[in-house]
Amino acid sequence: MDLKHYSELESRLNYIHKVRPLLNKSALYSDESEYYQFPCGAGAGDTVTIRFRTKRNNADAVYLISGALRRRMQVAGTKNGFDYYETKVVLGNETLHYFFEIQAGKLTCYYNELGVTRDLNEQYAFGIVPGFTTPDWAKGAVMYQIFVDRFCNGDKSNDVLTGEYAYIGEQVQREACWEAMPKAMDVRSFYGGDLQGVLDKLDYLQDLGVEVLYLNPIFVSPSNHKYDIQDYDYVDPHYGKIVEDEGRLLDEGELDNTKAGRYIRRVTGLANLEASNQLLIELVEKLHERGMKLILDGVFNHCGSFNKWLDRERIYENEYYYQKGAYIEADSPYHTFFKFNNEHAWPYNEFYDGWWGHDTLPKLNYEASPMLENYILYIARKWVSPPYNVDGWRLDVAADLGHSADYNHRFWKKFRKAVKEANPDALILAEHYGDAYSWLQGDEWDTVMNYDAFMEPVSWFLTGMEKHSDEYRPDLLGNGQSFADAMRYNMARFYGPSLYTAMNELDNHDHSRFLTRTNHKVGRVDHLGSEAAAEGVDAAVLRQAVVIQMTWPGAPTLYYGDEAGVCGFTDPDNRRTYPWGYEDKELLAFYKKIIALHKRYDVLRKGSLKQMLYEQDVLAYGRFSMEEQIAVVINSRGEETEVEVPVWELGMDNIRNKIMRQIFQTDSEGYSEERVLHTVIAGILRIRMKPRSAVILHHKE
Q1: Global pTM exceeds 0.85
Q2: CB count, 10 Å around CB of 311?
Q3: Which H/E stretch holds residue 380?
Q4: Does residue 431 have an active-site annotation?
Q5: For 553-567, b where at least 16 C-beta lie within 10 A, e where not — what string?
Q6: Sheet containing 47-55: which strands, arranged edge to edge?
Q7: By the 8 A CB rule, do 517 and 533 touch?
């Protein structure tokens, strides 16, 4: 980005710094956005420009340091009282790690991903991975997670029937009432949501502003959550199409699934399976026509005990076009897919490894089976290729796959190669708790579900609640310093391409609903009851959280029903049905407005981030580019408070007064899009914040 013309404008200003002031550390800035390292996606042999910002005439020298390289940077231009230093570097084959050294008089300090430091920790150096890019469509994209069984029943003819089969010791049940609360043992209860229901609600989703759908697993599986895959090759006909529907249901009290004729015909009959896959093709085509994307859930660490490769329930044993499962006989072609601990127990060998000891979730034994590895890589390619053309994978418990860290990394490298060769624009997004740095080196995952650098800091600051509602921490409620530190340290473990595509959720199918966390009730549905989840909730706090979600780097992701006011403790209570016809209309309208605002400003998708203020109960941060600034101020107090925000840190001139336009506000009484002008004096925004409020302000040169 050329800064020469900005320098010419600055030279006409009627002030000159005759004496250089002390180094203004708040003015020092760089990051891994496209404004401070460019071009994006540069490969080995390409030249990249790296930029660093200081206050005008405030530093004697700035150096870029990378290993043995120590290069003095030159001022490329000046704008709004800031000097912008640049240097060019030719990338090699290895990741370029770098930080900055700033000299001002006798002072020398450094700048890395954590900001200004005297004691440099190179662990938090900036980085460029040659050739590492993530799909541009995913940067800041508004995503929407659907737990399919609970979203919308579009085709009642494919509903799971009460007594259709047995699972974990009891027969499955079709819930007669859509509004019924999930049971404590919910895994066998089905409400009838399906892909046709998703198709039927595409107008709703597009009107809401959704750009990407993420579906919990949709492949053949016996549970409602479908993280126990039975057949990776086909969409479950209970979510798809049932065109052949014959066979008996189980008698009352009967648990032998070899007698479950209706179920066997539904999920093994090729006509049903192929029709279901065809419905997925239709869904993807309709989404693409609307400019929307689809991400599927890939469960590759384990499968299910019903899986055709194991066949513990003997579903496939007598179906002539299926080979015998590894549970059935020792010479099954799938024997090596699983680790058996008793090699003398066939037929019907129940001594296999289960994930976390669950025999319904057999652990897949990749190290012992090249055939298994090749098959899963085939599955990875299949669904992102024609005719399905799915736009990416969300990887369940991705760090657990395999029996060693070494194999895990080797597999995900192969997985990435397979997916990106089939569909270079596909997104690979992993579920992971903790530091994912070693998987985010440009050759494995693209990004992660962002727990550490989004969900948890936001939940602690605004609610004081742990994400399962298992703990209340008054010391973290409103703790701005803790919020800022958590964000700073955890975001530093992402390279730019991963950060801007990270899935920023407030809640999902594994955690309590965020709205429920606002009531500070510690516990779960089994001893608190379903009604308690909605008692004493505070929608104003949820609105504050959504403002942060829509203005923070990453892809803001709604869990279905959040926008309608759905409450719920952690699994299974968080999997309530979408309340069609009973939505919280005011909250839904709020979501539409704030999503539209997020999509209106490109700086909210790709702009830099600066945390400006973090005090008890008050946060202020900004997203900015060279020409545009957005400031966000949060007041979590139950009373009005006046806040002074140094918005000059976003790159605004602090000599001449500026105007920032308030473009959105939410508080304890509601929300407003009324445009209010605020004068920024000497780079400081003074603003009076209402109780439990959030304000978004905008300025553009």
Answers
A1: yes
A2: 25
A3: helix 370-384
A4: yes
A5: bbbbbbbbbbbbbbb
A6: 37-38, 47-55, 82-90, 74-79
A7: no
Residue among 31, 159, 231, 396 flagged as catalytic? 396
Which residue's entry shows tokens 């007669």?
176
Cβ atoms of 238 and 274 within 8 Å: the answer is no
Q: Write the pLDDT tens digit of every residue in 225-250.
A: 999 999 999 999 999 999 999 999 99
- The conformation of residue 303, written as its DSSP 8-state character, comes to -
Tokens at 97, concatenated: 């790690």
Q: Which of 173, 305, 154 is nearest to 249 (CA)?
A: 173
CA dist 334 and 222 (Å) reads 20
pLDDT per residue as tens digits for the range 433-475:
999 999 999 999 999 999 999 999 999 999 999 999 999 999 9
DSSP single-letter state for residue 306: T
CB atoms under 10 Å from CB of 506, counted, come to 26
Tell me if residue 634 falls in helix, strand or coil: strand
Identify the helix (H) or strand (E) that includes residue 603.
helix 603-606
- CB-count exposure of residue 118 (10 Å: 0-12, 13-18, 19+): exposed
- Whether 396 is catalytic: yes
The residue from 34, 175, 231, 431 that is catalytic is 431
Distance of alpha carbon 519 from alpha carbon 542, whole angstroms: 11
Q: Are 395 and 439 in contact (CB under 8 A)?
A: no
Long-range CB pairs of 525-533 (<8 Å, 24+ gap) are 525/182, 525/184, 525/568, 525/569, 525/570, 525/572, 525/573, 526/184, 528/569, 530/181, 530/182, 530/568, 530/569, 530/573, 532/569, 533/567, 533/568, 533/569, 533/573
CA distance 543 to 559: 15
Of 222, 220, 217, nearest in space to 168 by CA: 222
Q: How many CB atoms are located within 10 Å of the residue 474 CB?
A: 9
Count Cα atoms within 13 angstroms, Cβ side, for 208.
Answer: 25
Residue 389 has pLDDT above 90, yes or no: yes
Cα angle 680, 682, 688 (rounded to 5 degrees) comes to: 40
- Within 107-255, strands assigned E span 107-112, 115-117, 126-128, 143-146, 166-167, 170-171, 173-174, 189-190, 212-215, 219-220, 231-235
